[in-house]
Amino acid sequence: METSNTRRPAVAGQFYPGSARALREEVKRFSPVVATTQRAWGVMVPHAGYKYSGATAGMTFAAVQVPETTVLIGPNHYGLGEPFAVWGEGRWLTPTTEHQVDEDFTLELLKNAAALRDDHLAHSRDHCLEVQLPFLGSLHLQGRIVPIILGSHHRGALDEIAGAIAATQRLLGRPILIVASSDMNHFEPQKVSERKDRLAIDRMIEMDESGLMDVVEEHDISMCGVGAAYVMLKAAKALGARKAELVDYRTSGNVTGDFDSVVGYAGLRVM
């Protein structure tokens, strides 16, 4: 039964194929078979159209174990709704998947993070979390999600949300994967974007969320999900993560052949 708590796909047929068959084939094409996966507390994956960033997302998800609950964090591209919004209950649909919201987790988050609000409007049009679901569903068909979207880089609020994620995991006692959804630098020449992106990636590999935010601000790096990466790193460290690795990096120029104005895509895992 469909209710107001059902989030239907907003970008099927745009960012990824709209038919279930074509989508399954695309996800499979971008998801390498690996001999072993590692337990990770977090990953960062891109959220562009699959033709541009699907390979990076697929490689990154394939490199980690996906547990029952995934905390999805991304940037609010449209400025709708509350600045810090969680979808508190119900389910999210794509052509190939149905993900129940982990309502136990969202309830505790709302208790422990005053900045967060249960708000559907903020999530209604955005693609940044939706595009991750077909990859997650291919790895854990019955997996539950905690969708969080951020419309501000206020560090006090981000710290509070990261702390609440870690505290909720410890309270509930079940494994989680924290997924930060972010593209890297936007619409500059290849060499400029590679240099800027390397500055940000180095801070993430060093597990330095404050340094990441600083370098993005100081060097005008248009990394749209820096707040999500900040929260993911801080929460993962609080849960015991000790290292981060770059899984893949590429730009849109690798697909289009246009290196004068590119968008960067990076996949990292945090363990």
Overall description:
There is one protein chain. This protein is an alpha/beta fold and 271 residues long. It has helices at 20-30, 50-62, 103-112, 133-139, 155-172, 190-205, 209-218, 226-238, 253-256, and strands at 6-7, 42-45, 69-75, 84-86, 91-93, 98-100, 117-118, 144-150, 176-181, 186-188, 244-251, 262-270. Helix content is 38%, strand content 21%. Strands 2, 3, 4, 7, 8, 9, 10, 11 and 12 form a nine-stranded mixed sheet that branches. Helix 1 packs across helix 2 (50-62), helix 6 (190-205) packs antiparallel against helix 7 and helix 7 runs antiparallel to helix 8. The chain is globular and about 45 Å long. The model has no long low-confidence stretch (mean pLDDT 97).
Strand portion: 15-25%
Low-confidence stretches: none
Proportion of helical residues: 25-40%
Structural class: alpha/beta
If you compute it from the alpha carbons, what radius of gyration comes out, rounded to the nearest whole angstrom? 17 Å
Question: How many strands appear in the DSSP assignment?
Answer: 12
Q: Largest beta sheet, briefly? A: 9 strands, mixed
How widely separated are the two ends?
Answer: 38 Å
Averaged pLDDT: 97
Helical stretch tally: 9
CA-based shape? globular
Helix and strand pattern: EHEHEEEEHEHEHEEHHHEHE
